[in-house]
Amino acid sequence: MTDRIALITGVGGATGAALSRRFARGGYRVAMIARNAARLAELETQIAHVRGYPCDVADLDRVGRTLARVQAELGAPHVLVHNAVAASFGRIFETSVEDLERNFRVNTTSLFFLTQQLAPAMIERGEGAIMITGNTSSFRGIPLRPAFAPTKAAQRILAQCLAKDLGPKRVHVGYITIDAAINAPWSREALPLADWQDKPDDHFAHPDAIAEEVYHIAHQHPSTWSFDHVIRPFAESWTLN
Q: Could you tell me the pTM of the whole model?
């Protein structure tokens, strides 16, 4: 192990757990942030060199205290992966202002706050990476996502602001759009289209493969950094277009 630290938000049972495994395998000590304390405790028993920090990223005061704990116990993170997401689906009269504000708080405001807290140490060190996982809602709106798509679009534009500001300071910011349904245990039950229920696994984005791409982008050579990434299964219909 090295003294490198990665902080990953939104560590659930699919992409977040896969990200934690990949960065731990890459030699990082990993701080995992999620609301579900029991899941974090379980992952601590399954993955070496990780530590769970139960926290709702919508609660900025608690996030601040959690970051202080991470830095005291592990050190200042070299990499931030913002994978936390809040989503509400329904047409304009089926959702609420509270849904929109909660989604914005988790998806966008927390990224703003985390960057303010963590980027200064990266700048002082002369290296760092901030990776954000997104989806097609950051590029387009549909009738069922008025309380969600605006928050992801704002997240992507915030990330672009950060990339242009922090890049010359040697902090790499990347936005990874996952144009796919993710192959999580609960995915098929949650999908609204019946014909998706019987599709083979490789029609879904695999969490370990997503994590591999995020890890790769976080470690690009500084002479060839990139910002916008769209990843999708071979059979995806390119819904961004």
A: 0.92
